[in-house]
Amino acid sequence: MMVLVKDRRNLNLRLPLPEGHQRRPAFPLPLSLSSVSSTGTSNLSSSAAGASFSDFKTLEVLGHGNSGTVYKVENKRTAAVYALKVVHGDSDPTVRRQIFREMEILRRTTDSPFVVRCHGIFEKPGGDISILMEYMESGTLDSILKTTGSFSETSLVHVARHVLNGLSYLHAHKIVHRDIKPSNLLVNRSMEVKIADFGVSRIMTRTLDPCNSYVGTCAYMSPERFDPETYGANYDGYAGDIWSLALTLMELYLGHLPFLLPGQKPDWATLMCAICFGDPPRLPDEASDEFRSFIGCCLHKESSKRWTAAQLLTHPFVNKDSGLDK
Fold first, then answer.
1. From start to end of the chain, where are the E strands?
2. The Protein kinase domain covers which part of the protein (predicted)?
3. CATH 3.30.200.20: which residues of the chain?
4. Do 227 and 11 form a contact (C-beta atoms < 8 A)?
5. Strand, helix or coil at 148?
6. pLDDT in tens, 56-90
7. What is the chain's mean pLDDT, rounded?
């Protein structure tokens, strides 16, 4: 009897590092702003143009992002409020690379109402970098989810429409975000949803430039990010953002990560195996046909079959009346 022996494929099982919240620098208050000089401030808004950092006072810490600590600051002359992202000059080299990457991207993305706006970039002689950004009063979608509970479909139509407009803009400028998730989507008092945190983004030099490095957050990563040998053939590099958006919308709807049970804590190996070997998650039966169809268009395991951001903006789900865009 003949036995067919199939070559065993070596799956790349390297795990990305978990979110480094314990390694992020925490800067004490008050933050001294008076000694900072501006650099590359051609993209300052009219409301911030001409202001020096001595014109600002620190109000509170908003949180710790992938690339530093974010403060709420106020212009003492105009009372305008901003978010100030600060990275110290002696920070980890990886963090420094991320912030310079973010600076490069922010200089390119000042024209979209669906991307958090940069009002100025400043450096201190010692190497500290500060980015003055639009303040989003209502926080992140992640914080709203934890405070108010799961989102209705009506609210998610609004979220999807805004994020897709932002992604369509970024992708048209050959920018891949690579870390779309609820904590990187910010909301202002007008309930506008905007994309933030470009610490792991990449500016693509070619349309088909592969983007399969192990960055971003494991739970939202697409199959080809883990296993490009199987799932990444001929994908265009932007499809990973679409996968992440679908999982984000599902999490907001379900109240938990789609690949986990309610209350289950993320386990990186479990998530990786579920993403690579399991079927894409599905919405429950009570979700509308349009919503389930939309998610299906985003979660093809073969990345080339996923709809683009521009195509998804024409989907019936996105064009339903959310009642929030008026």
1. 37-38, 56-65, 68-75, 81-87, 118-123, 129-134, 139-140, 175-176, 185-187, 193-195, 202-203
2. 56-318
3. 37-134
4. yes
5. helix
6. 899 999 887 555 678 999 999 999 999 988 876 66
7. 77
CATH fold label, 37-134? Phosphorylase Kinase; domain 1 (3.30.200)
**Separation between Cα atoms, residue 62 and residue 73, nearest integer Å:** 10
CATH class for the domain made up of 139-312 = mainly alpha
Alpha helices by DSSP H, the chain: 93-106, 141-148, 153-172, 223-226, 228-231, 239-254, 268-277, 289-298, 309-312
Does the pTM surpass 0.85? The reply is: no
Q: Give the integer Cα–Cα distance in Å for 78 and 88.
A: 27
> Which residues are designated catalytic?
179
* Cα–Cα separations (whole angstroms), residue 208 to 171, 173, 235: 12, 14, 7
Q: Output the known binding site for ATP.
A: 85
CATH 1.10.510.10 positions along the chain are 139-312
Annotated binding residues = 85
